[in-house]
């Protein structure tokens, strides 16, 4: 995948350093569809974790006809059936790089459930952004030994899953880590310490299954074309790693879509796992080009047995932050042509 006009990861690193100045402005209650049913459907969806803070700062959305509506209603109108929500361990109050505590995530999860959409919970195992090659340990866990950290992760996942359960919500998928090519909670859980990395992730897996036995536990990696993907799965599998499904981030071009999806398929087939693309995005400044890219990824995923595609923060628009890979027009607050890629896909 070539370099993006604006690197999403560079944006996240910048906001993690202090983004406050930028922020100026199908589950029925309590029941999971189960792994077999979820894997038989193709889910179009989005990560919209910024929505509560956007709303708190006065942001709202209009549909393509210019009518103000709830964002979930608009997304469902484009055929989206799934929502991903991230959660941080002890986040700051920064509206862009903080919030997403488990209580806030659970409140948003109720809205997702009430909208009749499937839910994915995305653990970052960090107080702020965790991504490919950047996996900071939560401050409260920073001085822990491996055994202490394993217990802390098990306790945290158990507690937070029970918060979700107490709200009458059952997730379809649970990601144990975000873009964890290099492991989690560095340095203890680095991929360079594969036994410890696997122990931490298995603790998270087991805690999820204890609360939600039918939840699909997902391993999420970035950049499926990179050698770090095969290296991670080799290390994780050989040390007894447990997981149900693979998730991948890819922000590649329209011409690269088929090849990137083939990379997702190849490594997933090697371990007998279903897969989906859990992050996608493209420049909002080029809506027709990003619409085409979205269509190409959807076509490639469907034709190769992928289970779905989630757009990362499509509802984002300036001046909430400096991210320019959403799919909304900041002038009229309406969706751009990018969203038509979902309707056609």
Automatic annotation (TrEMBL):
Keywords tagged on the record: Glycosidase, Hydrolase
Key word Magnesium present: no
Protein name (database record): Arabinogalactan endo-beta-1,4-galactanase
Segments traversing the membrane: none
UniProt-listed PANTHER family: ARABINOGALACTAN ENDO-BETA-1,4-GALACTANASE A
Catalytic activity entry: The enzyme specifically hydrolyzes (1->4)-beta-D-galactosidic linkages in type I arabinogalactans
Gene3D superfamilies: Glycosidases (3.20.20.80)
MF term (GO), any: glucosidase activity
Membrane keyword on record: no
Record InterPro entries: GH (IPR017853), Glyco_hydro_53 (IPR011683), TAT_signal (IPR006311), TAT_signal_bac_arc (IPR019546)
Protein family according to the UniProt entry: Belongs to the glycosyl hydrolase 53 family.
Lineage: superkingdom: Bacteria
Organism annotation: Kutzneria kofuensis
Pfam families, sorted: Glyco_hydro_53
EC numbers on record: 3.2.1.89
GO biological process: pectin catabolic process
């Amino acid at each position: 995948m070539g370099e993006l006009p604006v690197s999403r990861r560079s944006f996240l690193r910048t906001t993690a350093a202090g983004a406050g100045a930028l922020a100026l402005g199908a589950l029925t209650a309590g029941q999971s569809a189960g792994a077999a049913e979820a894997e038989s459907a193709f889910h179009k969806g989005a990560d919209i974790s910024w929505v509560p803070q956007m709303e708190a700062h006065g942001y709202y959305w209009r549909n393509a006809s210019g009518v103000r509506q709830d964002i979930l209603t608009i997304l469902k109108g484009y055929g989206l059936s799934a929502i991903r929500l991230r959660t941080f361990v002890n986040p700051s109050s920064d509206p862009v790089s903080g919030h997403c505590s488990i209580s806030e995530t659970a409140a948003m999860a109720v809205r997702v459930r009430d909208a009749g959409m499937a839910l994915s919970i995305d653990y970052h195992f960090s107080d702020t952004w965790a991504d490919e090659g950047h996996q900071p340990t939560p401050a409260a866990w920073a001085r822990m030994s491996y055994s202490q950290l394993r217990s802390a992760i098990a306790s945290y996942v158990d507690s937070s899953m029970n918060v979700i359960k107490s709200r009458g919500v059952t997730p379809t998928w649970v990601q144990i880590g975000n873009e964890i090519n290099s492991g989690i909670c560095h340095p203890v859980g680095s991929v360079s310490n594969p036994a410890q990395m696997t122990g931490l992730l298995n603790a998270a897996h087991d805690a999820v299954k204890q609360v939600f036995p039918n939840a699909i536990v997902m391993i999420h990696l970035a950049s499926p074309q990179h050698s770090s993907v095969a290296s991670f799965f080799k290390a994780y599998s050989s040390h007894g790693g447990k997981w149900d499904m693979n998730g991948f981030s890819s922000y590649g071009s329209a011409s690269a879509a088929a090849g990137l999806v083939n990379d997702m398929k190849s490594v997933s087939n090697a371990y007998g796992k279903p897969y989906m693309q859990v992050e996608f995005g493209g420049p909002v400044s080029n809506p027709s080009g990003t619409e085409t890219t979205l269509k190409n990824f959807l076509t490639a995923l469907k034709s190769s047995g992928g289970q779905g595609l989630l757009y990362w923060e499509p509802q984002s628009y300036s001046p909430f932050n400096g991210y320019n890979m959403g799919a909304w027009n900041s002038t009229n607050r309406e969706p751009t042509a990018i969203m038509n890629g979902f309707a056609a896909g």
